[in-house]
Amino acid sequence: MKRKQWQGWGPGEQAEQHYLVQPRALAGGGDLRHVSEFLSACGWQDKSKRNGPLVLDSPDRTIRIGYNPYMLPGGWTIHSKATAHQDEWTVSLGRQTPVEIVAGLTDALTRPRSAHAPNVWAPLQEQHWKTDRGDEHFIATSPDGAAWMQFHHDRSGQAIWWSGAQDEQGNGWTASFTASTPMHLVQAFSEALASPDPVMRPRGRVPHSTRIRTTSVSVLPSQLSAWQQARVHAARAATWARNSWAASQPRTTTRPHATAGRPRARR
Question: How far apart are CA 101 and CA 123, in angstroms?
């Protein structure tokens, strides 16, 4: 285990021990606020009941994100109603899915779609994931064998995406995507899944596994808060910029002239 000490400590603060964990897929669930505070800053409405499951609705009320630890197996559910341009879809993620990977998908819900065609496999190939193609499936596995991303057809011919991670003891999580889930969201998930960047967990919240590598770091509470707020401020700034741009665009419909339909006066 490596150990680092952060510089620039201020007076009156006591450093706390945290760990940088790799691979991120095995880091455990993490702090739900990493997902919820970003969405709230983007205008999502918190519909959670006191001491109940987390529930967030999109500004247009077409998408609901929930996290429920009080039922089995529990975890995340992201559900979208059918719209004029998109069928209904659902994504389910286990409770131990790292919040940084969940956020890869949920953050993408707040951004406009890219003009480029999505490619779910590209982020995995860039990180040298191993691929295997069969008659009914295509699967990519992380270099350490801990995580996977799979595409297959079920008995009815529906296209199914399935992902997850598992340690040597069988502990881990899975994620499933219905056939109608927009591909750019599946790609955003695969990017977050394949990222080599470590994630931070406080002492006592690091899973016991021989498959993970940890680096001990001393972090001030003010530093941790500043990092969290930077993510929230970035979300607010991006939302303000998009709303300002939308408000500045000309109307697409022409209002009828005030005198339209009136008879002309005779001279």
Answer: 13
Q: For residue 109, how far is the Cα from the chain centroid? A: 8
The residue extents of the domains of the chain are: 2-6+14-245
Residue 57's DSSP bridge partners are: 45, 64
Q: Which amino acid is at 93?
A: L
Q: Concatenated DSSP letters for 155-204?
A: TT--EEEEEEEE-TTS-EEEEEE-TTS-HHHHHHHHHHHH----EEEETT
Q: 239 in helix, strand or coil?
A: helix
- Residues linked to residue 219 through DSSP beta bridges, in sequence order: 16
| Rg (the chain; Cα; Å) | 23
Q: Which two tokens stand for residue 167?
A: 């340690």
| pLDDT score for 251 | 61
pTM: 0.84
